Automatic annotation (TrEMBL):
The keyword ATP-binding does not apply. InterPro entries: RibonucZ/Hydroxyglut_hydro. Residues 1-25 form the signal peptide. The keyword rRNA-binding does not apply. Keywords: Signal. Coiled coil: none annotated. PANTHER family: UPF0173 METAL-DEPENDENT HYDROLASE YTKL. This is MBL fold metallo-hydrolase. SUPFAM superfamilies: Metallo-hydrolase/oxidoreductase (SSF56281).
Length: 277
């Protein structure tokens, strides 16, 4: 009778390989373990905290998202947590958020004088160019980040100069791509896991070019894409035309605020254009 040892050894090796591989986004999967909080042991990720009651409370399994303008969104959870992305001195939400995230690309993405009422100010970079690491939980909101590189004004590269921030609430994962300047690697995609809503810069010049951004969005396979950082209507329309050619549906929303839940996510990839100033 042949020894079972070789077969057992092979099974063990395959199991170890499976554990070592990063989790990859799978279209149509709704299981909770696709969100990055459960792969937070990755060296790429980190989290934040929250405060204040939003004007219109989301229902228990909803998240409210408002496009304030440029690259700033206000995220509000059912638990009353408020967060502003790319918080700066020019475009701010009407309320003081409990949490603010910032990136360093230029002054419309950060503030040197954030409102003192903000409990948690999270920078997407460190001055020593080491990766910023956030892993913060505030009530029903979790925040992490994936460091990315950016170009400097001379065309060089600033290692770990910005971050993609990831927010999880109501079993939804929202990724703010920030001032993304490069394609995401398989390791990046594995660290991000399942992303349900992508807030994507679509200017095509200051950040990633249009072809590169479409490549990133296709790799993420998220049900919802919300454009930002486009400066003028013609730039936005150019991006929408290209994305429509890639079989994305395009919906123009009448309000800058939308409620999202897992149950109401679109079944086909959809670009939702929110009015913003």
């Amino acid at each position: 009778m042949p020894s079972p040892f070789p077969r057992l050894l092979a099974v063990c090796i395959l199991g170890l390989i499976g554990l070592a591989m990063p989790p990859l986004a799978t279209p149509g999967h709704a299981q909770a373990d696709r969100c990055p909080k459960l792969v937070a042991t990755s060296p790429f990720l980190s989290p934040p905290r929250l405060t204040a009651l939003p004007a219109a409370m989301p229902q228990p399994r909803e998240v409210s998202l408002t496009f304030v303008g440029h690259a700033t969104f206000l995220i509000e959870t059912a638990g009353g947590v408020t967060l502003a992305t790319d918080y700066n001195d020019y475009v701010r939400p009407a309320i003081v958020p409990r949490v603010a995230t910032m990136n360093r690309a230029h002054s419309t993405h950060y503030s040197l004088n954030p409102d003192p009422g903000i409990e948690h100010v999270l920078k997407g970079w460190r001055e020593d160019r080491e990766p910023a690491r956030h892993d913060l939980e505030v009530d029903d909101l979790w925040i992490g980040n994936l460091p990315t590189n950016i170009r400097d004004w001379e065309g060089g590269t600033i290692q770990n100069g910005n971050s993609i921030f990831i927010f999880r609430a109501a079993d939804l994962c929202i990724a703010h791509l920030g001032h993304l300047h490069h394609i995401l690697t398989p390791e990046d995609l594995g660290a991000l896991g399942r992303i349900d809503i992508v807030l994507a810069p679509v200017d095509g010049s200051y950040t990633l070019d249009v072809d590169g951004m479409i490549e990133v969005l296709k790799a993420l396979e998220s049900p919802v894409v919300i454009p930002m950082h486009y400066f003028n209507p013609s730039t936005l329309e150019r991006f929408l035309a290209r994305l429509a050619d890639s079989r994305y549906a395009v919906q123009r929303q009448p309000s800058a605020t939308m409620m999202f839940s897992r149950a109401t996510l679109p079944t086909t990839p959809t670009v939702m254009v929110l009015p913003g100033r």
